[in-house]
Amino acid sequence: MNLLTLYYFVELARELHVTNTAQKLYISQQNLSQHIQRLEQHYGVSLFHRKPKLALTYEGEQLYAVAVKILAEEHEFMNRLADISANSIGSLKLGIPTYRGEICLPSILPQFYEKWPNISIELCGKSSSEMEEMLCSGELDLFIGVMYQDNPKLDSTPLLNDHIYMVCSDHLLKKYYPDTWSVLKNRSEQGTDLSGFSGLPFLLPHPSMKLRRTIDQCFLSSRVKPRIFLESQSTELFISLFPYDYGAFFCTQTRLPAFLSAYPEANAFPLTLKNELIGHRIVIASHKDRVLPQYAQDFISITKEVFAGIATVLPGRPRPFN
């Protein structure tokens, strides 16, 4: 049993699909299966149920919990050695949603690699909730995403209050509010609680998403039962459907510049709850009990500077956190 075998086991335990995991690891399915068989022989247990579909056994679940900790400790030790090494060769496991990475990483990475050219960065693009859990378990070094409340296990630095907007076209407003659309539009430019838009159809985030839970609070507060045309985990899908006027949708402020560049005629109304603008609290976080190498600390400092700059150019000019 070695660390590589444990790593292969953890990846298969997450994916629960031999073909996909082997492709991700750039090894053959036979090679992957041999590593798992060695582990099972070493411990004398079955780690996976093979039928009707691949799933962890109870013993597999126990090994997974331990293996994640072992690999996290080994990664932290390698990071400590990188601080000692004159060449500073190490790695940084960063959790960040793909679209948010597209916004900030082009500004962060050039500054970071100018100082730390030998540090490799491994990106994880799962949901904010999943990545927060991965940070707590030691599977990530840093996380840039949504945290509404501080986690006692984590050190978190607020970066930006990413305001939420309702997006729709004039054509959609005219269709459902032919007599009052212009009044409704003017009234909503500084903020809306959704009470005036009960007649519109909506394209909504999936109920499991943090953005959806926030939007549902607004609907509930306004006593509006939304007419749901479509639900999806992809805001990109909603953006692509905008020209067809299937319904209004919601997006965060950091997405607006690119969207409004493509559709300058679109309406983007800031969402309010109890007369207050609402948004996502974007933070950069690390684990309190893990020592961050200097390059990770520098990454945090650069990220704070970049987000302060992002805040000054967004529509509505939200204020960055101090």
Keywords:
47% helix; 322 residues; transcription; 13 strands; nine-stranded mixed β-sheet; D-Maltodextrin-Binding Protein, domain 2; alpha/beta; transcription regulation; LysR_subst-bd; Arc Repressor Mutant, subunit A; two-stranded antiparallel ribbon; 12 helices; disordered C terminus; LysR family transcriptional regulator; WH-like_DNA-bd_sf; globular
Structure notes:
The structure is a single chain. The protein has 322 residues and is an alpha/beta fold. Among the domains are: 1-84, Winged helix-like DNA-binding domain superfamily/Winged helix DNA-binding domain (Arc Repressor Mutant, subunit A), CATH 1.10.10.10; 162-280, Periplasmic binding protein-like II (D-Maltodextrin-Binding Protein, domain 2), CATH 3.40.190. It has helices at 3-15, 18-25, 29-43, 58-84, 98-115, 128-136, 170-176, 181-188, 210-221, 235-241, 256-262, 294-313, and strands spanning 48-49, 55-56, 90-95, 119-124, 142-146, 154-168, 201-205, 227-232, 248-252, 267-270, 272-273, 276-277, 279-287. Strands 3, 4, 5, 6, 7, 8, 9, 10 and 13 form a nine-stranded mixed sheet that branches. Strand 1 (48-49) and strand 2 form a beta hairpin. Helix 1 (3-15) packs across helix 3 (29-43). The longest helix has 27 residues, at 58-84. 29% of the residues are buried. Mean pLDDT is 89; it is low at 317-322. Keywords: DNA-binding, Transcription, Transcription regulation. This is LysR family transcriptional regulator. Belongs to the LysR transcriptional regulatory family. It holds the Pfam family HTH_1. Residues 1-57 form the HTH lysR-type domain.
